[in-house]
Write a structure and sequence with these properties.
The protein is an alpha/beta fold. The protein folds into two domains: about 55-265 and about 470-485, 3-Layer(aba) Sandwich (Aldehyde Dehydrogenase, Chain A, domain 1); about 270-450, 3-Layer(aba) Sandwich (Aldehyde Dehydrogenase, Chain A, domain 2), CATH 3.40.309. It has 15 helices and 27 strands. Strand 3 (about 20) and strand 4 (about 25) form a beta hairpin. The longest helix is centred in the N-terminal third of the chain and has 22 residues, at about 110-130. Bound molecules: nicotinamide-adenine-dinucleotide. The site of nicotinamide-adenine-dinucleotide (NAD) has 32 residues, from helix 8 and helix 9.
């Protein structure tokens, strides 16, 4: 059993009330509807958000459209936009504790971890600010004496940004600052389960000087609000992070008006381990990769593919280290695994574990929900003897559940890694350069970690192959994703009419 950290009673029992940001105004939802968020760690209501209706969503899109077509934002210089993004980054840093508390209490995430995520988000806002000044097109002076070609990068227009609950403040940072750097205007819909920190971001962006209508933030459910954001003819692009199922639906909806779509979706990420690996390093990375964010992470290293000669020893060592992991109260600074997002999701995770056990896997560690009297928690779990066909080896469990598979040859390991529909990330562990590079080239995933796992940087593109997504976030091309290309084809000198003899 891991170390249990029983949740302490909340010091602050006031329910925080939020309104929505539409056209620079903080407003209630039409008809006064609200959504309540119950803390997954404590089982009590902690936030109440004004809920957007279809009409509110239309108003937010109209505000973004006006701000783009008529407002000053797309006429600002890159330097002006950059300065506002830098100011936003500073203001986020000033309110770090408040934002961290909101993500911890609404999502059940460990507070120390969230502070790290917000630090990462600040870095991304600063990185996007740097790119805002460097966005440029191309020129062609090689087309002959009579022609000059200039390729412009223009802001694409109104962008719908839809985000999930598992990294509320970090994921909006992977989208919004780049859209703003390009000169776009936006309608942002955070997950209805974890909207608080994104609404605080709205206050910050107003203070940073972002004009009214440029960032509109509405709270609502996917079928009601997200659906309009993906279909509305006045939206030019949808940037979505969430499940593969809703991603496909969003793409189909956006296709009705041929919007550009960027999708960051699910993952079932393998870590392939060879006998010559530094196993001390790997064991730590395996525990981190599986249990970080309670496994509610698109990048979770939830599928270990171990060489059969080391498998038994590795499983024993991972189980031993799992006993040192601290699970429970997300507000305790020492906690490493917090709560599970909803009771329904906990039941889904338990279903995967019992399904795997029924199909012949062995529960080598954990395997059960933990009862702290309130909230919902899942014990860190290791499933040994998993085979590639089992649901737990192919589907996203999105809980602290590690599936262990084995291989004998490098080719077999690659085949197992590539045998599923996802292709977000993968890890390879070996001291052999050849092995690492071969796996790096043959495994079909957007990120391959070599002798490390789940590292990242604002400079490094992130996204998935296959059904893990479409497009890349971060990296130096991230701002370009929010642009259209326009060609200026210019003629110099006398024209030769097409009917005239040459
Ligand atoms: P989800 O797909 O249920 O919801 C994501 C967002 O889409 C939410 O804001 C939701 O309200 C909205 N939505 C729901 N139905 C919609 C619809 N019909 N039209 C438009 N929007 C709709 O996902 P989730 O449960 O919030 O998040 C978990 C999923 O996100 C996991 O699959 C995870 O792998 C994925 N994820 C991917 C990445 C990545 O970068 N690849 C990062 C984080 C999470």
């Amino acid at each position: 059993m891991s170390i249990l950290v029983a949740p302490k009673a909340l010091e602050n029992t006031t329910v925080r009330e939020f309104r929505m940001l539409i056209d620079g105004q903080w407003v209630e939802g039409e008809g006064g509807r609200v959504l309540e968020r119950v803390a997954p760690s404590h089982g009590v209501t902690v936030s109440r958000y004004a809920q957007a209706s279809a009409g509110d969503t239309e108003r937010a899109i109209a505000a973004a459209r006006r701000a783009f077509d008529d407002g000053p934002w797309s006429r600002t210089t890159g330097a002006e936009r950059s300065n506002m993004l830098l100011k936003a980054a500073d203001l986020i840093a000033d309110r770090l504790d408040e934002i961290a508390y909101l993500d911890a209490i609404e999502a059940g995430k460990p507070i120390s971890q969230v502070k790290g995520e917000i630090g990462g988000a600040i870095d991304i806002w600063r990185y996007a600010a740097a790119l805002a000044r460097d966005l440029h097109g191309e020129s062609y002076n090689t087309l002959g004496e009579g022609t000059l070609g200039v390729v412009l990068r223009e802001a694409i227009g109104v962008v719908s940004i839809i985000t999930p609950w598992n990294f509320p403040f970090l994921i909006v940072a992977q989208k919004l600052p780049f859209a703003l750097a390009a000169g776009c205007t936006t309608v942002v819909k955070p997950s209805e389960l974890t909207s608080g920190s994104t609404l605080v971001l709205g206050e910050i962006l107003q203070e940073a000087g972002i004009p009214a209508g440029v960032v509109n933030i509405i709270v609502g459910t996917g079928p009601e609000v997200g659906n309009i954001m993906a279909t509305h003819p006045h939206v030019d692009m949808v940037s979505f992070t969430g499940s593969t199922g809703v991603g496909k639906l969003t793409m189909a909806n956006a296709a009705q008006t041929l919007k550009k779509v960027s999708l960051e979706l699910g993952g079932k990420n393998p870590q392939i381990v060879f006998p010559d690996a530094n196993l001390d390093n790997f064991i730590d990375a395996a525990v981190f990769g599986a249990y970080f964010n309670a496994g509610e992470c698109c990048n979770a290293g939830s599928r270990l593919i171990l060489h059969k000669d080391i498998a038994a020893d590795v499983v024993r060592r991972i189980a031993a280290l799992s006993e040192n992991v601290r699970i429970g109260d997300p507000l305790d600074p020492m906690t490493q695994i917090g709560a599970i997002i909803t009771p329904q999701h906990l039941r889904k995770i338990e279903g995967y574990v019992s399904g795997a056990a029924g199909a012949g896997a062995n529960v080598a560690f954990g395997g059960k929900a933990l009862d702290f009297g309130a909230g919902q928690y899942m014990a860190p779990t290791i499933l040994d003897g998993v085979t590639a066909g089992m649901a737990v080896a192919r589907e996203e469990v999105f809980g602290p559940v590690l599936s262990v598979l084995t291989f004998e040859t490098r080719e077999e390991a690659i085949a197992i890694a590539n045998s599923i529909d996802y292709g977000l990330s993968a890890g390879v562990w070996s001291r052999d350069f050849d092995t690492c590079l071969t796996i790096g080239r043959k495994v079909r995933a957007g990120t391959i970690w070599m002798n490390t796992f789940m590292d990242g940087a604002s400079e490094l593109p992130f996204g998935g192959f296959k059904q893990s997504g479409l497009g890349r976030e971060l990296g130096r091309h991230a701002v370009e994703d929010y642009t259209e290309t326009k060609t200026l084809n210019m003629h110099i000198g006398a024209r030769t009419g097409w009917w005239m003899p040459r």
